[in-house]
């Protein structure tokens, strides 16, 4: 099976997201990411609408709270029947374990397939110098990311969100079945925007990314379907 290319639906409401999706041929089943902006506006209705169109869903709410709160929230998310969801590794192993248990409890309750739980490591908008000066982390950025990956794997998470640069290091440590989902993807001709650790679709494929996440180079393209096809071809080239 080809590895997923996940389109970030970073839109303010459902009509805008729907108008974007309507630019793709009918019957084209996509893998889409619903983030905080769209989900806070629509609630679970957006999940139902996307499922009805046959799309796979990454619900990206990046939970980070005390273990009890995260357990309860992920029990609710687990009932939605999405494919991937996110939690912050920085919350620590106890919180991650609570999240894993909550997600499973929700899926069991709703009798749906459990989502894969991905731990956010260092955001792709973070540079090493920013991490060291603002988070007071003495380690290098790859060391911080691989440390989070190890904690996430031990806690029972299915994978991490990281940049393409860290994928080979993580896989060497965790094995390739542990997902490395990589945002910050930019075709060579695109602007990097706020992304600090970006890479091309081809570099992601060569590094062994399990899936790529890409928003603006597709959502803000003059012809989104054409941009999607070009990026997909590069991602699937290797
Ligand atoms: O969890 C994410 O998806 C995520 C983690 C991360 O470290 N960096 C990152 O960019 N993202 C998300 O990936 C998407 C990237 O969008 P673009 O920069 O427009 O391609 C956004 O929806 C971000 O919220």
UniProtKB/TrEMBL annotation:
- Output the InterPro entries linked to this UniProt entry: Aldolase_TIM, OMPdecase, OMPdecase_AS, OMPdecase_bac, OMPdeCOase_dom, RibuloseP-bd_barrel
Cited Gene3D superfamilies: Aldolase class I
Enzyme class (EC, first level): lyase
* Claim: Lyase is one of the keywords in the record: yes
The catalytic activity of this protein is classed by the Enzyme Commission as 4.1.1.23
Q: Which GO terms describe its molecular function?
A: orotidine-5'-phosphate decarboxylase activity
Any idea where the Orotidine 5'-phosphate decarboxylase domain is?
4-231
Q: Which UniProt keywords apply?
A: Decarboxylase, Lyase, Pyrimidine biosynthesis
Reaction(s) the record says it catalyses: orotidine 5'-phosphate + H(+) = UMP + CO2
Q: How does it assemble?
A: Homodimer.
Q: What's this chain's function?
A: Catalyzes the decarboxylation of orotidine 5'-monophosphate (OMP) to uridine 5'-monophosphate (UMP).
Regarding protein family, the annotation reads: Belongs to the OMP decarboxylase family. Type 1 subfamily.
Name of the protein in its database record: Orotidine 5'-phosphate decarboxylase
Could you tell me which species this protein originates from?
Latilactobacillus fuchuensis
């Amino acid at each position: 099976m080809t590895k997923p290319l996940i389109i970030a639906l970073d839109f303010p409401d459902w009509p805008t997201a729907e108008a974007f999706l309507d630019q793709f041929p009918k019957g084209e089943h996509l893998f889409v990411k619903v983030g905080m902006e769209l989900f806070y506006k629509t609630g679970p209705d957006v999940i139902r609408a996307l499922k009805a169109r046959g799309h796979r869903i990454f619900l990206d709410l990046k939970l980070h709270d005390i273990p009890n709160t995260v357990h309860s929230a992920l029990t609710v998310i687990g009932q939605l029947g999405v494919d991937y969801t996110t939690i912050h590794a920085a919350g620590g192993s106890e919180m991650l374990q609570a999240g894993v248990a909550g997600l499973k409890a929700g899926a069991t309750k709703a009798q749906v397939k459990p989502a894969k739980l991905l731990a956010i490591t260092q955001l792709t908008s973070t540079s090493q110098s920013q991490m060291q000066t603002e988070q007071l982390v003495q380690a290098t950025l790859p060391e911080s990311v691989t440390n989070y990956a190890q904690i996430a794997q031990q806690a029972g998470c299915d994978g991490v969100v990281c940049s393409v640069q860290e994928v080979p290091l993580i896989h060497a440590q965790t094995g390739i079945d542990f997902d490395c989902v990589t945002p910050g993807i930019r075709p060579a001709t695109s602007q990097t925007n706020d992304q600090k650790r970006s890479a091309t679709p081809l570099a992601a494929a060569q590094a062994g990314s399990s899936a790529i996440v890409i928003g603006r180079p597709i959502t803000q393209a003059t012809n989104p379907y054409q941009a999607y096809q070009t990026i997909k071809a590069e991602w699937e080239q290797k």
